[in-house]
């Protein structure tokens, strides 16, 4: 296998706090190992439109604490076509890029996998998404910060919920995954979480109301994961207005607040460890793997597993929430 001389790095899909810390770690680890680094702007789009520049250690100074991504990010429809990927590959060749580190979510790593197979290019992925929905890693870069943001927001909304004795449905992100909603509910002392993983098994709203929820409380907070399956906070609130009109209901959708802000210490450390591990993996001849973390150990997870498998919800968390909110 020829030695890697130049690695390209990009961020793709939804931004997540800690992406900058990952860019910094990959850049510095590569330079440390004598490999050239090129920053590719705007995700896969920048490969096609040739927005590529060499990165020195100074390019990544003073960014570990910043949210978002200095490389910008984008969603790129052309990259989903063989013609778009060919253009992207031609540009990489012109720049002498012989390996890639892709930081992004499920979609971005799907693109990476297809590209790696089509062009036999070594690619390592880093799981960068607040959704925490990638299989093979206990946590993803950005998840901890988003969870902390949710907790702070819910703490504030609780003041109004308590003062007005209201039932609040707070919608959090997750793109069909309930990790933010479930752990956000536990962390903020909410009464319940409505998540897509459980929606098909039972009617979470009916169960919550019918098992005597609010017997001992005058206000309640329920976190709802955004999803067609849950109906989102608006859908759930609409149902309550029709079926349980005795409640004074309000909805709050946290939205993109959850994606921004300075990364938590956990996310900075995770991103740094994963960034260094990505370069190690490339040097070690690994290709088509996502760097994950399991029980505090760095692991290499084949793209095929990380993308295809659904990451399960830990059922103990459901019990912890149910019992702690009586
Ligand atoms: P995320 O990485 O946050 O899940 P998206 O699902 O929007 O975000 O994917 C980001 C980008 O990854 C897409 O805009 C596209 O460029 C690329 N991508 C996603 N799916 C594919 C695919 N099946 N083939 C090629 N590229 C893809
Ligand atoms: O994947 C991250 C995420 O924030 C999801 O939780 C959400 O569904 C989606 O991205 C929102 O995307 P956009 O910023 O394009 O509206």
TrEMBL record:
Mg(2+) binds at residue 106. Keywords: Allosteric enzyme, ATP-binding, Cytoplasm, Glycolysis, Kinase, Magnesium, Metal-binding, Nucleotide-binding, Transferase. It catalyses: beta-D-fructose 6-phosphate + ATP = beta-D-fructose 1,6-bisphosphate + ADP + H(+). Belongs to the phosphofructokinase type A (PFKA) family. ATP-dependent PFK group I subfamily. Prokaryotic clade 'B1' sub-subfamily. ATP binds at residues 14, 75-76, 105-108. It is an enzyme of class 2 (transferase). The active site is at residue 131. Its EC number is 2.7.1.11. It comes from the Bacteria. Its main location: cytoplasm. The gene is pfkA. The lineage of its organism: Bacteria, Pseudomonadati, Bacteroidota, Bacteroidia, Bacteroidales. Catalyzes the phosphorylation of D-fructose 6-phosphate to fructose 1,6-bisphosphate by ATP, the first committing step of glycolysis. This is ATP-dependent 6-phosphofructokinase. Signal peptide: none annotated. Allosterically activated by ADP and other diphosphonucleosides, and allosterically inhibited by phosphoenolpyruvate.
């Amino acid at each position: 296998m020829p030695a890697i001389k130049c690695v390209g790095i990009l961020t793709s899909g939804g931004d997540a706090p800690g992406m900058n810390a990952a860019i910094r770690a990959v850049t510095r680890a590569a330079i440390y190992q004598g490999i050239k680094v090129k920053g590719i702007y705007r995700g896969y789009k920048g490969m096609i439109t040739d927005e590529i520049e060499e990165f020195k250690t100074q390019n990544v100074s003073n960014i570990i604490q910043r949210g978002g991504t200095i490389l910008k990010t984008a969603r790129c429809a052309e990259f989903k076509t063989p013609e778009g990927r060919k253009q992207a590959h031609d540009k990489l060749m012109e720049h002498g890029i012989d390996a890639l580190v892709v930081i992004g979510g499920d979609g971005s790593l799907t693109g990476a996998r297809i590209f790696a197979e089509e062009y036999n290019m070594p690619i390592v992925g880093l799981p960068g998404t607040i959704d925490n929905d990638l299989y093979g890693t206990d946590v993803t870069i950005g998840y901890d910060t988003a969870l902390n943001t949710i907790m702070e927001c819910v703490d504030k909304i609780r003041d109004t919920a308590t003062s007005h004795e209201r039932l609040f449905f707070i919608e959090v992100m997750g793109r069909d995954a309930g990790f933010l909603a479930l752990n956000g509910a536990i962390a903020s002392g909410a009464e319940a979480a409505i998540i897509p993983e459980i929606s098909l098994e039972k009617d979470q709203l009916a169960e919550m109301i019918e098992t005597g929820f609010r017997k001992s409380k005058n206000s309640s907070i329920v976190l709802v994961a955004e999803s067609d399956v849950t109906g989102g906070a608006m859908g759930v609130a609409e149902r309550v207005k029709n079926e349980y009109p005795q409640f004074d209901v309000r909805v709050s959708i946290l939205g993109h607040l959850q994606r921004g802000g300075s990364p938590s210490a956990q996310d900075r450390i995770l991103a740094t460890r994963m960034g260094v591990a990505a370069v190690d993996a490339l040097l070690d001849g690994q290709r088509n793997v996502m760097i994950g973390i399991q029980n505090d150990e760095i692991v290499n997870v084949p793209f095929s597993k990380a993308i295809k498998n659904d990451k399960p919800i830990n059922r103990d968390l459901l019990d912890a929430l149910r019992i702690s909110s009586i």
